[in-house]
Amino acid sequence: MTEAKQYDVIVIGTGPAGQQAALHAARRGRRVAIVERRSMVGGVCLHVGTIPSKTLRESVLYLSGWRLRNIYGSSYAVKNQITMSDLVVRTHFVIDRELNIIQRHMARDSVELVFGVARFTGPNEVMVSANGQETLLRADHIVIATGTTAYRPASIAFDDETVIDSDQVLQIKELPRRMTILGAGVIGIEYASIFSTLDIEVTVVSRSSSFFGFVDREITDALAYHLRKRGVALRMNEVVSRIEREADGSPCVLLESGKRIRSQLVMVASGRSGTAGQLGLETAGIRATERGLVKVDEHFRTEAEHIYAVGDVIGFPSLASTSMEQGRRAACHILGQRELPAMDVFPYGIYSIPEIAYIGRNEEELTAAGIPYETGVAHYREIAKGEMLGDDTGMLKMLFHRDTRKLLGVHAIGTDATETIHIGQAVMTLGGTLDYFLEAVFNYPTLAECYKVAARDAAEKLD
Q1: pTM for the full model?
Q2: Does residue 218 sit in helix, strand or coil?
Q3: pLDDT category of residue 2 using cuts at 50, 70 and 90
């Protein structure tokens, strides 16, 4: 019988959520093991998700000269005839650096790395299999942070070359001239905007009537306008019937409406599936959903109270930022540290081109709730920094309570929206009002100025 190695905490998964759970516990004197099924730590976030896609976006923005085309003309580019090899150089560089940082942190805090596939063999036991060898781990507390994989509908025949899922983007050998994306969620729209920036003909197919239903309508309308302006075809309210092959082997998407969409590459972005169903959870008294997700309480405990689940494997919001905080909070609860307020307000970023960010409520939500509000808007084209950046599409909108003047929401689209949103986050979290922005001094010229301009716009409507 295999003798078990004893720990205080076992973490399954080395993505952002798992890292933070393991490091927080280890730094407070607990013996921690973290299990990773890949040959390298970092999880989906580092190897095929957040880091690669956002680095790819930066490479595209730089090499295409997109940010400066409003100044130097629509044909401006840092490099003509951009190849996939050009784009992935920067991505691999960043991944290697991030990988090194994670490994250093794990070693510094004495977190034991165990490579292999984990499965529960009991309420407190995890068996890890690797290269025909099995290692039994036992702990008082276990944290599940296994993340998700791209959902692959059974009706679609993937060949992993011309029909791929969203996790396989970096494996593209040559940039296509025409591309079809199935799905208009965050991942689908991000990649649609990225590849269209390279002057690739992109078609997005979605059964929904719109995209980003959780984002302020004015912001999504602005993004849709700019996508269409640069040639992205948005085929909404359409259902895919099947994918056929043309005479040259290229894929052709057939829609139930009778439309045929020919392209050289089809990327399926139909959401994500959790991987918890592969862990043998029933052995520990836990049930996974049909999509492989795990249900948790406000402390991130599963049905088995000594077992926690954090990150994408528990579903919405499935952000690297919130996953990190979930991992830390789960570790805090395991250690018996003081209870923390729930994460009710956090910033949401969408790395499309142009990027989108928001925090708090939108106009539709406030109207439905019967809350009196007023808006204040600032456009980048009215800000000196916006002119310097060549961004004439950006805007920032703030929502204030008409009576208390409290900040209720901030919504932005444009360059560095995911950065500037944090000003709104800080003010909102501290209960700030319109008057803060009216009286505050912001560096000039900066995009942060938008807050002042938008506040003045709101004040003129309120006073």
Answers
A1: 0.94
A2: helix
A3: low
